Structure formats: C-alpha cells, structure tokens
Amino acid sequence: MGLRLEPQQIEEPADASRRDAGYSLTEVVVAVLLMSIAVVPIILAAGVSVRTSSQSRTLARVETVLANAADRVNRAPEGCDYKVYVEAAALAEGWNPTQATLSYKYYTPAATAATEGTWTAGACPGGVRTDGLVQMVTITVAGPDGKTLRSIQVVKSDV
Questions:
Q1: 141: helix, coil or strand?
Q2: Mean pLDDT of all residues belonging to the chain
Q3: How many domains does the chain have?
C-alpha cells in the first residue's frame, strides 16, 4: 500500500496564453512612435549644436586674421600700399592670401578749417605719399566657408 500521487492538473489563468504570445504590431508601432518623439529632437539639437560650434570656430578664426592684419597695417611704415601686410596675416593662419582684401581712402582737407574735408578713393593722391597724409585702410577678411565676412578700418597718418 503505498501512497500514490495522481498528477494534478494545474489550471492556468485564461490570460496566460495571451502573456506568452508577445507584442502585437500595434504595440510595437506605438512604442517606436513614442521613442521617435523623444529621440528625433535630441538628434536635431545635436546637429544644430555641431553646426553652431563650427560657425563660431570659423568666426573666431576670421576675427583673429582680421585683428592680425589690422595690427600689421598699423605697425607698418607709412606708404601707399599695405597689401603685403594683409596677405601675410591670412598666410599666417594657413589661408589663401586672397581671403584678406583691402581698400583705401585718403583725406583731402578743405580750403578752410571751417569747412569739412572729403575722403577720396585711393591709397595716395597721384600714387605718391605726401607729408601729413591721412589714410583710411578698410580690411575685409572672408572665412574659408565663404559665408563669414568681417571688416575693420585702420586710419594711418604721419601727423
């Protein structure tokens, strides 16, 4: 006489088979949609951040070349042409010298002190530097991207 155990049937709840079936297509689509709503703006923000950082770096380099060129022109001996100094500033940054350009004006005083003189286009009157000449040298630097453009004016005078 021994004890005999009969296997008992364990009844599973009715939703157990549903639990083992996995996710429905609708649930997967909703999950992907919710994740994309959160992830897409983060990716777009990262792209904007990278682009802004690149533009800031380019602007800083343009302003460095511009300040360098203005300093070189300011320290240069008085003359009619400062192109070599401006191009040297671009070359110092490893850029093409044509990325830094300049234009000139010189001041022509009026006949009397009571009236205003005029600025005339050109480096020197008749291409010759005269005593007391006041020049305005406008230096323009373009960044390697071609979009960033900055200018500065340097007034040169031996007065």
A1: strand
A2: 88
A3: 1
